[in-house]
Design brief:
The protein is of the alpha+beta class and about 600 residues long. Among the domains are: about 1-195 and about 575-610, Serine Threonine Protein Phosphatase 5, Tetratricopeptide repeat; about 440-515, no CATH class. Helix content is about 35%, strand content about 10%. It contains 20 helices and 12 strands. It has helices at about 5, 40-50, 65-70, 100-120, 130-155, 175-195, 200, 210-225, 235-245, 255-265, 320-325, 340-345, 395-410, 415-430, 435, 530-545, 550-555, 560-570, 580-585, 595-600, and strands spanning about 75, 275-280, 315, 350, 360-365, 390-395, 440-450, 455-460, 470-475, 480-485, 495-500, 505-515. It has a two-stranded antiparallel sheet.
Length: about 600
């Protein structure tokens, strides 16, 4: 996105590297901390380098969303290369798999960059407020990189000072609990230092702000409350941190779910909903590659026409995800049953553009063949090539609301009124309640009439909508047997009149049934366990493909069992074999990734995770 030009593209200055000139950045082969970090600008450049790791191909630029987190009960790859080149995307990796090694190495690169910056934070003569902001951002990023390490690898070496020696590399793994204590220390200190850094003031989401830190702290505490630490006291902390974001008056839900992702495609910021983003830029032209290969080019709607927006469409939704969205009539035998939840048909793309060089719109009715539709390149202002500059959101306000609801349910051993309110806000947005108000939900045939030789025309009038609904009639044996709502309309103030004309028959009568604001709400009176089960499903419906499912299932202690049950379900539900290939290979060893063999060779104190 555009702010990346001003803020973000710069290579690390604390390690041996070189970079092409970008704006006012001067290339160099090596910058020693001894002769750098002497000015506020140099300190900011160092921070930019710490940020830059987030967008590397080994992290959010590709491998996290596209590789390590792209197989669960909500999403599946739709291709398996005979060479096994994508094996790491199916959990079929080893300690020697290159992508596992670069994932680990990139996280420690970010940590070392933060350590070097923090060791030199007091060198420049500069305004203290500016110094505190840089320090806060660096501390938070160090904590975040450790968070990714500990959730994926378990015990890891805990290093909080610059690594300058090429010989002193033997560092033992610190227990998970100690790593989390460091994460909390870094992030809580950062939260205090960033009290005046607000995303609504900045106007863009690429910098760490107060509410970003608070929201990620809620996520960290939820993870600590679950497997493997099972520190239940952290549910109260997660509730407190998420509540700070809710009451900050900084954030609110975008009333249009799809618009969140359309804005990303158009390089527009939505700072009310999108609290923190990884910045990307351009199309990899001119020797600078700050592009995103994950959302859009790989996780997108199949299209080979670069004028529309190229995507290999490698990731599909699962039928389990598709069917998790509530439908209007559960008894319907239609191939695709109508739903009022607008998220389903956005997340599970019911079309693609084929593999020809000229896009050809093709409807898709089999949920197993529906691409993950959340990021759609057709909305880019000037799509080109096989990469893009679309930002990736790491924290959305809807996640804050769902984390709060989950934590409150755990703290009080029952869902509170505020927990119901939080989850219902997310669901009401999903159902378009703020965007569309009440709509025509169904049309009931109250008299079938006789003598119809063709389907009569359905006219819907009255009710003072901002947009009329449309519908078509179905006949059988001369009678009108059903009326299918084609479009639901918007903002009905009263029940409209249904008129049937033509078709050669008479006597058919139908009545419209409107939705209401409570259609989206979950039922009251649930116990703790039932409310939790709803949270498990709602997080998938809302946050699918965004990198949360695997960490969620892990902390809930459900990852292995859920993947096993999903594999069994998929086989019986007509899934192609590739859709459950990853799930079939899951064992308890997959609770953690393997420690890279290269690291074990270099660091004699490292030990391997169980099963690897």
């Amino acid at each position: 996105m555009r702010h990346l030009i001003k803020f973000y593209i710069i290579a690390f200055i604390s390690i041996s590297t070189s970079c092409q000139k970008v704006l006012d950045t001067k290339p160099t082969d090596f910058l020693s901390p001894l002769n750098y970090y002497n000015t506020a600008e140099e300190l900011q450049n160092g921070l930019n380098g710490v940020y830059n790791v987030l967008g590397s191909k080994t992290l959010y630029g590709r491998d996290i969303l596209y590789g390590f987190y792209a197989q669960s009960d909500e999403e599946a790859f739709n291709i398996w290369l005979s060479s096994g080149a994508l094996a790491y995307c199916f959990y079929q990796y080893t300690a020697s798999t290159p992508e596992v090694g670069t994932f680990w190495a990139s996280l420690y690169t970010g940590i070392n960059g933060a350590n070097t910056l923090l060791a030199n934070i007091n060198k420049p003569n500069m305004p203290e407020a500016q110094r505190e902001k840089i320090k806060g951002e660096a501390l938070f990023l160090r904590g975040y990189y450790y968070f990714l390490l500990v959730t994926n690898f378990g015990d890891v070496p805990l290093i909080t000072t610059p690594s300058n020696s090429v010989t002193d590399v033997n560092i033992k793994r610190s227990p998970v609990k100690e790593v989390y204590e460091q994460i909390l220390s870094d992030m809580t200190t950062a939260e205090k230092l960033l009290q005046n850094q607000k995303v609504t003031t900045l106007g863009y989401s690429g910098k760490v702000t107060k509410t970003a830190v608070q929201g990620i702290l809620a996520r960290v505490c939820l993870q600590m409350a679950g497997y493997p630490l099972l520190d239940k006291a952290k549910y109260n902390d997660a509730k407190a941190w998420s509540y700070k974001v809710i009451t900050s008056e900084e954030h609110q839900l975008n009333p249009d779910y799809s618009n969140i992702f359309i804005k990303l495609a158009k390089d527009e910021y939505d700072v009310k909903e999108s609290i923190w983003e990884v910045e990307f830029y351009g199309y990899g032209i001119g020797g600078i590659d700050e592009t995103n290969q994950a959302t859009g080019p790989f996780i997108g709607i199949l299209c080979s026409d670069e004028k529309v927006g190229y995507s290999s469409g490698r990731v599909n939704a699962t039928k389990k995800l598709f069917d998790s969205y509530e439908v209007i009539n559960p008894a319907s035998t239609a191939t695709i049953r109508p739903t009022l939840d607008l998220r389903r048909d956005w997340n599970c793309a019911n079309y693609n553009y084929g593999t020809t060089t000229t896009a050809k719109y093709t409807a898709v009715t089999n949920p197993w063949l529906m691409n993950a539709g959340k990021w759609r390149r057709e909305y880019e202002l000037s799509p080109m090539g096989k990469v893009n500059g679309m930002n990736i959101t790491l924290l959305r306000y809807s996640d804050i609301l769902l984390m709060y609801a989950e934590a409150a349910n755990e703290v009080y051993s029952m869902p509170t009124d505020s927990a119901y309110t939080a989850i219902n806000l997310v669901r009401r947005r999903g159902y378009g309640k703020v965007l569309n108000g009440n709509v025509v939900k169904t049309i009931a045939v109250t008299a079938q009439g006789t003598g119809y030789t063709t389907a009569p025309v359905v006219t819907i009038t009255g009710g003072a909508p901002s947009l009329n609904a449309t519908a078509t009639a179905v006949i059988s044996a001369g009678k009108v047997t059903a009326i299918n709502v084609v479009t639901n309309g918007k903002n009905y103030q009263g029940i409209p009149t249904i008129t049937l004309t033509g078709g050669g028959g008479t006597g058919a009568v139908a009545t419209a049934i409107l939705s209401n604001m409570n259609d989206a709400d979950i039922p009251l009176g649930l116990n703790k366990e039932d409310f939790f089960d709803l949270i498990v499903d709602e997080r998938s419906r809302e946050l699918c493909f965004e990198g949360y499912r695997r960490p969620d299932l892990l902390r809930w202690g459900k990852f292995v069992s859920m993947m096993e049950s999903y594999a069994s379900y998929a086989k019986g539900a007509g899934a192609p074999a590739v859709a459950y290939r990853a799930a079939e290979s899951i064992t308890t060893r997959n609770l953690l990734m393997p420690i890279p063999s290269k690291e074990i060779t270099l660091n004699k104190l490292l030990t391997q995770n169980p099963g690897w």
